[in-house]
Amino acid sequence: MIYLDNAATTKVSEEVFEAMKPYFCELYANPSGIYSFAGRSMKAVNEARKSIADLIGAQPNEIYFTAGGSESDNWAVKAAAEFCRTGGKHIITSTIEHHAVLHTCQYLEKQGYEVTYVDVDEYGVIKLDELEAAVRQDTILITVMAANNEIGTIQPIKEIGALARKNGILFHTDAVQAYGHIPLNVDELGIDMLSASGHKFHGPKGIGFLYIRKGVRIGSFVHGGAQERSRRAGTLNTPGIVGIGAAARLAADGIQERMEKETALRDYLIRRVLGEIPYSRLNGHRTDRLPNNANFCFRFIEGESLLILLDQQGICASSGSACTSGSLDPSHVLLAIGLPHETAHGSLRLTLSEETTKEDIDQTVEAVKRIVERLRSMSPLYEDFMKKDQKKEV
Predict the structure, then answer these.
(1) How confident is the model at residue 330 (pLDDT cuts 50, 70, 90)?
(2) Is it the case that residue 6 has pLDDT exceeding 80?
(3) Is the pLDDT of residue 199 over 80?
(4) Is 57 exposed, middle or buried (0-12, 13-18, 19+ CB in 10 A)?
(5) 8 Å CB contact between 60 and 53
(6) Is residue 327 scored above 60 in pLDDT?
(7) What is the mean pLDDT of residues 135-157?
(8) What's 90-122 look like in SS3?
(9) What's the CA gap between 235 and 29, in Å, rounded?
(10) Which of 114, 215, 223, 248 is the most exposed place for a label (fewest CB within 10 A)?
(11) CA distance 55 to 253
(12) To the nearest whole percent, how much of the chain has pLDDT over 90?
């Protein structure tokens, strides 16, 4: 099997798995207990919190554990909207956000909030001039992702953070795809809230966190007990927390070397696909993109058929966000960057990890070439296009 869907989820690393194991059957105490057995669990939770905070230049007491990226996004956007509503009911986001943000914003619109969805350019970069023009007296929150989960484009977070700070607006970023993959520093980037999820960087599923800058006053999202300094009720998922902490430590080790390796393989993949498969295009920014992300569109084919045939050859890939698998609609991200529906339907997302090899890439490219050629040979649209093209040459 060749696994190239690391944006959907990653394999739990062996080190992370080993770190988690004792907290299932040996050190199983509820960390909230006052006895020493529980104290060992709480010590492990606090160590994980520090590891997570260190990776983004935050303080441990600014990290709040959640069930994952979607909960963190919901918490940040809904709680900020509710707490700041006396100052206004206007929110700004982009047209290519993850649905955890977009659907939350749509929910808030039904509650009387107004949301401005700022466009992106053909590479998926938010239009900063439109973002600045969208700021109003009653704007209370800007939420823009650090890097897009489908096309990999990295957003100008520092500029957005500075704009938000200048206007006294809270700034939240969905960093689910970016955390652990590229350097992030919340102070340097002017971030007030940041969401991340463990399973995107070799941690376990079902655990994430929300960074909330000290001094940012937003309410609780899950009500009940006094866990997480009374901001997120529920018994702490100690094994998951230990796992995400271990994954954060591993991500911090050698991040630059890992980025360089993945970038080199990614660029090799892009060169081969664009150079050897006609009528293909790269989606997203050519250089300002995640090191492990390559997203393509192939004209005259259906992406779903391509994925099924790749799967038959043992290659795991996707056409976009795993959260929208099963949808017949083309990606909202690809439509937002200006692709027509018929082109957006022929998309393929390949996302690498540090374990991906050049041989994996070569096998995948050869498979994609064969499959695209096969699918086009059965396409009446492609046949008509080629006939017209040949007439032009004559």
Answers:
(1) confident
(2) yes
(3) yes
(4) middle
(5) yes
(6) no
(7) 98
(8) EEEEECCCCHHHHHHHHHHHHCCCEEEEECECC
(9) 11
(10) 215
(11) 10
(12) 93
Q: Is 139 left (phi over 0), alpha (psi -120 to 50) or beta?
A: beta
Q: Which of 62, 36, 66 is nearest to 236 (CA)?
A: 66
Give me the helix-helix angle, 36-54 and 238-252, nearest 10°: 30
Location of structure tokens 């509503």:
85
**CB atoms near residue 373 (< 10 Å):** 12
Find where tokens 């655990």 sit: 207
Looking at residues 161-182, what average pLDDT do you find?
98
> Looking at the chain, how many residues does it have?
394
8 A C-beta contact, residue 101 and residue 93: yes
- Catalytic residue annotation: 323
Q: What is the pLDDT of residues 92-138, one digit of tens each?
A: 999 999 999 999 999 999 999 999 999 999 999 999 999 999 999 99
Distances in whole angstroms, Cα of residue 275 to Cα of each of 66, 125, 292, 333 = 44, 25, 19, 24
On the question of pLDDT at 302 being above 80, the answer is yes
C-alpha angle with apex 368: 3 to 7, nearest 5 degrees? 35
Q: Report yes or no: 291 and 181 within 8 Å, Cβ to Cβ.
A: yes
Residue 118 CA to residue 95 CA, distance in Å, equals 6
What is the reported pLDDT for 50?
Answer: 98
Cα separation of 6 and 9, whole Å? Answer: 5
Look-up: residue for tokens 């260190």?
A: 54
pLDDT at 323 over 90: no
- Determine contact, residues 296/283, Cβ cutoff 8 Å: yes
Q: What is the per-residue pLDDT for 388?
A: 81
pLDDT reported for residue 391: 65
- What pLDDT is stored for residue 194 in this prediction? 98
Backbone φ and ψ of 143, nearest 5°: -130, 110
Half-sphere exposure at residue 204, Cβ-oriented, CA atoms within 13 angstroms: 21
Q: 46, 50, 55: which is closest to 252 by C-alpha?
A: 55
In angstroms, what CA-CA distances link 303 with 192, 313, 317, 372?
Answer: 38, 16, 10, 10
Beta strands 90-94 and 114-118, pairing class? parallel
How many CB atoms are located within 10 Å of the residue 217 CB? 10
* 55 close to 179: Cβ distance less than 8 angstroms: yes
Residue 326 pLDDT exceeds 70: no
Cα 202 from chain centre: 14
